[in-house]
Amino acid sequence: MNQTRVFLLIAWLLVATLLWMEWNKEKTAALQAPPVATQTASSNGAVPGAVPSAPTAAAAGVPAAPVQAGVPSSSTTKTAQADNAVVVTTDTLRITLDGGSVRNAELLKFPNEAKSNDTGNVALFDPTPAGFYEAQSGWVSSTGAAPDHLANFLPEGGARKVTLAAGQDSVEVPFIWTGANGVTIRRTYTFPRGGYAIGVRDEVVNQGSANWQGYVYRQLVRNPPPQKTGYTNPEAFAFHGAAWYTPNDKYERRKYDDFVDDGTLDKDATGGWIALLQHYFFAAWIPGEQDKSTFTLSTTQDGGVTRYVARAFGPRVDVAPGQKAETNARLWVGPKLVAAIEAQNVPGLTRAVDFSRFSIMATIAGWLFVVLSAIHSVVGNWGWSIIGLVILIRLLLYPIAAKQFQSMAKMRKLQPRMQQLKERYGDDRQKLQMATMELYKKEKVNPAAGCLPLLIQMPIFLALYWMLSESVELRHAPWALWIDNLSARDPYFILPIINVAIMWATQRLTPMAGMEPTQQKMMQLMPLVIGVTMIFFPAGLVLYWVTNGALGLLQQWSMLKRYGETEPAKA
């Protein structure tokens, strides 16, 4: 095997993936309308379409799976609650919330465009019907009144704008709900400096005369936008949908199109997390580590628009008269920054950085990112870090690649004799094959010796591809000279042209003996074909291929000089 064939195999895998994705789209059936949600009246008289029905009992503190539920069918209640909205600004977020719902979330350190200042920042939540996306939390109870996420939570202190002041490590925003049954729920949002994990603490105080039992629910509701397409767009290959993690079943995920066909999930969990993922960013509810809850997935219709609900239902809280209890969770709203996610110390949360659905590939990609980050901590530039990572990988795989190039060098030396065999036996393929195998045996050459090194390298190169595509750290990151955004295409196509030149030079050192003339012509066209496919790829990925190809060319030239003649191979 040789460098050109490596590129050919990569191209074939990409084409196969694209064909599979298109076939899967055609195969997916249209989403069916879900059953009508069970509805209960909230304390303010609104009908909470997204609130699950309250279970009557639950074993060992784990609530039964709630009935499939929808989302509010109109914005009437939201409009009535507008006066209760509070805008919170930290160094990383600008959030609008009303006590029951987080309705807007602007990521202040992530502009929509790399150079423009007038396109605003990335907004993860959206209250408008067209792009509806909210994080919601409420309560249900079979023993008395309880506030759903549409209930009239009132902000304490009367402030409608809260800003994290200089010197503050965090800022708290409390809301309170008071029921006619004497039950009071105080919900406090805590926003940390420099972080994206919002603390959500609910304190239940029972000042009534009867026991109160309630279940907290926390959910993400979204009308996802159309997913971008195009084989040169990394976002088209990123996962969009729900993901969750439980200690028993580990990491799992489900695309939006499969929400209905694959059922409501009903996954019991102690701790864990449930999220909605997209390219570079995600939102997730993270219950307490010891909290028992049920993860569910469902859909609802609102004016003909399908909305998708990912919910953590539970834990159960029992409060006797004169007593109080509390439950805590975290709401992640932000980018897939590995270091920030690891700082949460939540088992499995780093899998939200969805390098691959396969654990082994995700693990390899995670290791590669650790090395890439270590290099970046020294050089301070993601472009040079990519180059450094490729160099390290090449050094690590050098013994394997050396075997591959030794085999290539021996094959190259045999080209004149193989050509003589072709001229001698002409169209008698059987005799030609037998004579060729006899020549291999006599010269102790294994034509398949290069395949094993390639099989070992392929998982690493594929994992590196997905890692570079998914890493938000590279988003809008500059390299040098004309490359001011590694996540966008090369504006002048210089890197793709260099890549074509490197592949062509590599091919000139590649033995083509034994190939049919048609195969030889196809191989000669491969540098141009692959070069064209990479024209609109993100510059970071092309930089990786250019570096990898240049090192491969240098290594191949060195090996051929050491083990065989250096004259160019004739096509």
Automatic annotation (TrEMBL):
Chief location: membrane
From the UniProt record, which GO molecular function terms apply?
Answer: membrane insertase activity
Annotated Membrane insertase YidC/Oxa/ALB C-terminal domain ranges read 382-559
Specify whether Chaperone is a keyword of the entry: yes
Localization recorded for this chain is:
Cell inner membrane; Cell membrane
Task: Tell me where in this chain the Membrane insertase YidC N-terminal domain is found.
Answer: 86-363
* Subunit structure as annotated in this protein's UniProt entry: Interacts with the Sec translocase complex via SecD. Specifically interacts with transmembrane segments of nascent integral membrane proteins during membrane integration.
Give the protein name, as stated in the record: Membrane protein insertase YidC
Name its species: Noviluteimonas gilva
